[in-house]
């Protein structure tokens, strides 16, 4: 029954916010991604786990347009965004929180947040986004006039996420939010990620080396190894997968 | 909640009209100096004008290198474009307009003519900036430095081979239009424009580009556009400074705008502290005075500069004059400087 098939695929497309098909990325002669495909349902938290050099960061960079894919397609909210420039992708509601020292160290916290709303035009919406950021990360309000470079690692990570929230994203991509952060703060930040997802139904693609935590808060997971997706499934199942346990979760 | 937390939450108060006031002050000061130019010791006047030109060059390079983080070694190249373009215009056309006696008669028509020549020189340099910056600002760090270095050398060779502009012998007989007024006015305008640009909502993008390009791209900023704007604005003021220099020295040779001149400007920016406007201004003054003071051992000037740079990198990597000036002056917390 072709008709029924059509309607069911249309329904699947409607609930799916991000679809990646056969994505290839290479840096010169070295290929980093060898045809990965993934799908993220609207409003879900999906995680991409893998070791160093697996291609996790490359995946996010190519999804947000920072590097060009050699082959493959990226669909976001029903639109092909593969060839779009980064600012057009941000304008469509897909925002990327890069890994590492990713805040503007020489701007104040307030100015960092203002930069996050770079493509926003409505002052009322910017103010609302700011208030929301403060409700999620009250600490930022206390540090508003401080230079972002003087914040602690955890606070910088909060600021980076808050800055992304200022663009009022439909979908957030987080690159290793636990990297270089005090263990006590890591769980706080993961709680906040869940909170952001719950409050606005913001879809989240979480890239992590800390597989245990990532599998705890996500509904679905992909495992990346040397540019290939080697395993995927519901996070609950992967948590108990013997192979994955041995490789990423420790004994 | 402590009261200062409320204050911190409030939108930043409107900036005091310090900028325009300072600009106006500099203009009036320049007029005064010009009016009494006949009375002031010519040597002093000479040093003063050199300082003003150095400030214009350094502050404009600071927009590119200090605030936006793009290491350019081609500032003398942009300066030479402005110098040759404006001097070419004035030396060709001035005799037609103002007769053979193109002295410092400073009539209104002549001032307007000079301003036009300066602006054209600046625009020419800006255009050169666009041509060089457009394709090369996608490069990062060392590569960009190399491209701008190459540009500076190419421009020098080009001017060496344009016979109507004097070729290797240089362009002589440039009318002495540059007065202290013009120098101070342009220095003030450069400081004003760069300050306003960087402290505007739009201008935060320069600092964001400097701090983290990937993060800036990821929030939807076109860093390439910011880099090109910084490059073009910087080149414009370098071109104007070149025009001022040409009508001040009265003769220019291509080798006067070579690599070592670019390095000299870069040195001022590093010495003053990248992204620190007040520090860069003071460094420009200092590095203009220093060679004057060291005239007896002039041959060792570059040796001394090199030593200074090494010492600086070891002990004060953020610039010799990197102090929190705003705090010192106003005791108000403000943005610290860029690295």
Write the layout of secondary structure elements.
The complex is a heterodimer of chains A (251) and B (339).
Chain A lengths: L1 H14 E12 L2 E12 L3 E5 L6 H8 L7 E6 L2 E2 L5 H6 L2 E4 L11 H8 L6 H14 L1 H5 L10 H13 L5 E5 L7 H18 L2 E6 L2 H7 L2 E6 L2 E7 H5 L2 H8 L2
Parallel strand pairs in A: 3-8, 3-9, 6-7, 7-8
Antiparallel strand pairs in A: 1-2, 1-4, 4-5, 9-10
Chain B lengths: L2 H7 L8 H18 L6 H26 L7 H24 L9 H29 L5 H19 L19 H19 L5 H8 L1 H6 L4 H27 L9 H14 L4 H17 L7 H15 L9 H6 L9
Helix pairs in contact in B: 2-7, 3-7, 3-10, 3-11, 3-12, 4-5, 4-6, 4-10, 5-10, 7-10, 11-12
Count of all domains of chain B: 1
Assign the CATH class of chain B. Answer: Mainly Alpha
CATH-defined topology of chain A: Rossmann fold
Order of helices and strands of chain A: HEEEHEEHEHHHHEHEHEEHH
- Which stretches of chain B are poorly predicted, pLDDT < 50 over at least 5 residues? 1-16, 330-339
CATH topology (fold) name of chain B:
ABC transporter involved in vitamin B12 uptake, BtuC
The CATH H-level superfamily of chain A is: P-loop containing nucleotide triphosphate hydrolases
Overall average residue pLDDT of chain B: 82
Quick rundown:
Chain A has 251 residues and is of the alpha/beta class. Helix content of chain A is 42%, strand content 26%.
